[in-house]
Write a structure and sequence with these properties.
With 180 residues, the chain is mainly alpha-helical. The chain is built from eight helices and four strands. It has three domains: 60 residues, no CATH class; 32 residues, no CATH class; 62 residues, no CATH class. Helix 1 packs antiparallel against helix 3. It is flat. The protein starts with 7 loop residues before the first strand and ends with a strand.
Amino acid sequence: MSRTKNYFVLDPREATVSDLIHLLFSSDLGDRKFIHSSEERLEDDLSRFRRRWIIFVSIVIQKLMILFKKPLYFLGFSLACWLNLLSSNGGFLMILPNLFKGKIIWPEKTSATFASLNGNLDRRVKLNPKVERGSKRYKAMLSIMASKLSYENINFVSSVLHNHWKVLFFNSFFVVYYFT
């Protein structure tokens, strides 16, 4: 199942309602087809009800998320579009005047200004100039900002790398050449 020595994986797609009921009332976890573990005897460590309850709740939440996958996607996409509509038009108070003037800007999903929900919640794109390049703090800050950028579209990423970070961008790879 896994390449690591110690693992514990729950597969909600394999769990049935009867499996979940048995999970709550039976301490025998070894024969459950939706639990994959490196431990030979799961009963010893996981037989307490509290641990079984955590597994039960985790599986139920995962099953609900699978069930509502499309509505959740639509909700996230709608929220991202709404936030981009607000930011493209100067905020909530400017949408109506722009609409009446015919100057409303509709966000395009592939534009360099379209940010994901994550990007809208944290608009920072500039690296701190006070932190020395090559230091541990700089590398940590760079990895945090790069992980934030991983949710954005290619044009947004290219714009941030070129205009703010002064980095060349080649075909979905970060190639770090500083212009300075």
